[in-house]
Amino acid sequence: MRTIYDFNEAGLHLSHGNDKLGRTIxxxxxxxxxxxxxxxxxxxxxxxxxxxxxxxxxITNVVGTCSKHCSQCANSAACYAFHSLVQHHNxxxxxxxxxxxxxxxxKLFEELDKAITLQQTKKDKIAKFRINTSGELENIEQLNxxxxxxxxxxxxxxxxxxxxxxxxEELLNSxxxxxxxxxxxxxQWNHEADEFLAKYPGQFNVFEYDGTNRRNHNFLDxxxxxxxxxxxxxxxxxxxxxxxxxxxxxxxxxKKTGKITAVFAH
Length: 266
Hints:
It is a single chain. α2 (about 80-85) crosses α3 (about 90-105). By secondary structure, this protein is an alpha/beta fold. The radius of gyration is 19 Å and the shape is globular. It is about 30% helix and about 15% strand. A hairpin with a 3-residue loop joins β1 (about 15-20) and β2 (about 20-30). It has helices at about 45-55, 80-85, 90-105, 110-120, 140-150, 165-175, 195-200, 220-230, 245-250; strands at about 15-20, 20-30, 130-135, 155-160, 180-190, 205-210, 260-265. It has nine helices and seven strands.
């Protein structure tokens, strides 16, 4: 009942845009969640199987990349990636799992470099690349891999959202310089990034969750007022419904401005 994905059979899977990003932003997905929060398959006999074997029926044998950064998201409606994998596992599980296996093997960046170099010889060149449309940075090696890839391909803007502030600080403390075309958007959630942002004021874009559009939100009055004054992501309306604006039309998160962008809960 378990779907097994094997590194020896893993291939690289890139996506050429989607309805949210637009059709000009290439991107890559990895398995979201962690060991404790793993997507289980919703099939008619999954409960019977669990009773017989004592095992959950996981969508993939590959553990998610979100580690400790997953706990607030996986069991809420906030994690679109987790729910996408559950709802669309027939389309997502193989690609996301094999990308994750390549990532952890250390071979992902070599394969990406080859794929990007080949694509740049074609008419439909890559100009913008979204890292981790699903998934999270796991360690400094992966962050260095993305930074090195951006240095190799200065013609491409690489953009990422992350809650793993520790590895960013580790890279900065190592004396390395972030590539000019590598845009980091710090995911801010209920003041979790405050300490990091205070150390590096204005050095990173901030993408902040705004749940004040939810009926029973518990935001403090001062946060409600502060968030109301921020520029909000135009892709999400205050109602929580997606607008028709795509990332490649806005591009706010693909420029190093050091500014805060809020996004309504959706």
